[in-house]
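Render this sequence as a predicted structure.
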Amino acid sequence: MNRVHIKTYGCQMNERDSEAVAAMLRARGYRIVADENNCDILLLNTCSVRDLAEQKAIGKAANLQSRKKKNPDFVLGILGCMAQNRGATLLDQLPDLDLIVGTQKFHQVPEYLDNLRAAREAGVPIGDTIVDIAEEAGSQNAIKDHLLPQDSASQHSALNSQPAEADSAPLPQVTAFVSIQQGCNMDCAFCIVPKTRGDERSRPMDDIVRECEQLAARGVKEITLLGQIVTSYGRRDYVHTGGISPFVQLIERVHAIDGIQRIRFTSPHPRGFKDDLVAAYGRLPKLCPYVHLPMQSGSNRILRAMNRPYTRERYKEIVDALRAVTPHMYFSTDVIVGFPGETEEDFEQTRELFEACNYDMAYIFKYSIRSGTPAAELGDQIPEEVKEHRNQVLLELLRKNSERRNALLLDTVEEVLVEGPDKTGERFTGRTRGNRVCVFDASPRLVGQLVPLKITRASVSTLYGELALAGVER
């Protein structure tokens, strides 16, 4: 009754939450297993950004209820954003759930599972489903535990869906997510995150730095700082010092940690890119030249309707300023097409700005109604076929641009952090400083090393190359 499988839907924040829950459970004596058919407890960590994400998780849970009927001791729980958004109403569709835990109560999962196990072992009826979606002050500080390969080969591979070799030492984990902030106060008209994640709350800077130091001591080379609006970190808790925001102060402190060689962050807001953050790319060499900068729309009229507090002109100024500091900067973005009231002229402005910003990667979404958001009440909804056409226009632009940008890297030598085996297990993978995925032949002993890679081939999303290491085993 102690084998747990965690299936994660959605963003990097959810991945980090699942990792922390797994670490907390392991500390309580639970085993994290890769095979959902070989578990006693199955937890779905869910997403609510789009209705499709919720429906996938509900469909999965519905299928699992038949397993509970065959095995009454099987425990099924839903965690995260959908749990927070829907709460006990999930029981209307999923009456056999044992556990519904919201985004501010992840740290309570071990205790709730202990209670369920104790009741089953004592032969006591479980009773009502445990539902906990209450707010909790300081909950942002609970996401601090990590489960790395050196802690347990089988348990790490369970989280990463890669089989562990019983007779070989686990390869080190060289990248890690660090949660620095939870919640969001931006109230974008299309977004349900403020409802599912709560108000903006930042972790103490000293605690974050200590976590990064511990990760560095365990072999982690690259840190990605995570937050719903990561650039808002600490704005109510710390003062600007010499014109430097708390977020940039945090980057500076992580930059000073021995062993950490690369720093990334996600997801920011354009309004967070003041002069201090732009300048940081020119003076902090560990800060990778890659920015995820959500645009959402290139129309000022639609941006106002979305409650996005910037203009297309200001957005382009930020892109240009970053490229002025770091000419080889790489960009990704988020765009929503078909927001209520979006005209052909509005979309054309989005297309123009999208093309002008020269993105390397983009997440392009067709607007979908999310109940509980201001945009859900707007009229002038856009027909699905129009949204699909606009979506395809931007996807084609992105495809051509990604191919062109990747082609420019052919025959160049890029610095790559070797992360581990690729999906096939036959070659190795890593990322450039610009966040481009690379596949190449290498030796396991190079995992965790920064190596020069000559790019020999490129697809839309992946670079292929050969190590440019004279006299070194590959």
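Summary. Confidence is low (pLDDT under 50) at residues 153-167. The longest strand covers residues 413-421.
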